[in-house]
Amino acid sequence: MLLHLFLVLLSLARPFSVDAFSIHQRPRHQTSLSPLSFSIPSSIDFSDALSSVSSSSLSISGDESLIESTIQAAATQLMEAKLFTGMAHVTLDLAAFVSRGTAWLRLGAVMGRLFVIGADYIPDHSINTDEFLFQITMMSISLIGLAHSILPALLAMTFPTSKETLMKDGRAFQVLFRSVGLTWFQYKSLVASQALEWISVPPRQVITSEEDNQSDDGVYWLYQGEVRVESQGQHLHNVTRRVAPRLSDASLGLFGETRLVEDPQSFPPTTLTAGDTGAILLRIRSGKLKSLMAHDVHIAESVRKLLFRSMQEKLKAALLLQS
Fold this sequence. Notes:
6 strands; 6-stranded antiparallel beta sheet; Jelly Rolls; Cyclic nucleotide-binding domain-containing protein; cNMP-bd_dom_sf
């Protein structure tokens, strides 16, 4: 009986002791301290950290390259602006020393204005409105002048000429214009601009009269035939050319050249009449010629030389007649 009771108590006490022991003994690998806990990092954690560091390094290097490229772009723009400024000074200041031709001067002025606008615009891609309007205005003036200088040359390259007219043009150029410094191309530009034209006058017909002196701006040069010259009702002299004119007396066949001076009204007007055989003359429109002279310094110098030589030869001829 007692033995049976001891066995029953032993069976009841064994679960309690086992449970008590299991509570106090825990596996070492699951040990944790509250409230702090520790864990050993794995290889995945190391790879994530390395990726984060490398991405940060790439971000920093990307920012540095962006800053460096920005600085290089700014330096390049500044260099381009300085280059454009230098080119503007060269074209605006030195064009006059490179060539005396008006067309080249105006072309240099146009290019200079473009370089000035580019130098102001390149650094910050903006330009002051007042400066822009000023440069555009000056460039427009230069462009208009350049068009006036180039247009006669373009007309000369496309102007049709007959064989007969070409022969007369060649002779007129050789004996009248070449000796005063005019080139053949400039002569053709005068013809294409209608500053020069050939006219045939029937016998005894008035070419220009004293009454037409205000309206007629023509200067006439006798190529072949006869012309009678009168002034204030008095006969002055006749000029006759049976063949093409010679270089020695070419300027003697020039009439009305005083219309090319600044004050032609100070000279007495004349009346020109074709002779019995008629006359072939080269008519020079002084108004158009003066306009071309204003845009081409070479033509202006040649016309002044022609005017001076004509007056000189006529004065010499008058002195010879008086002697």
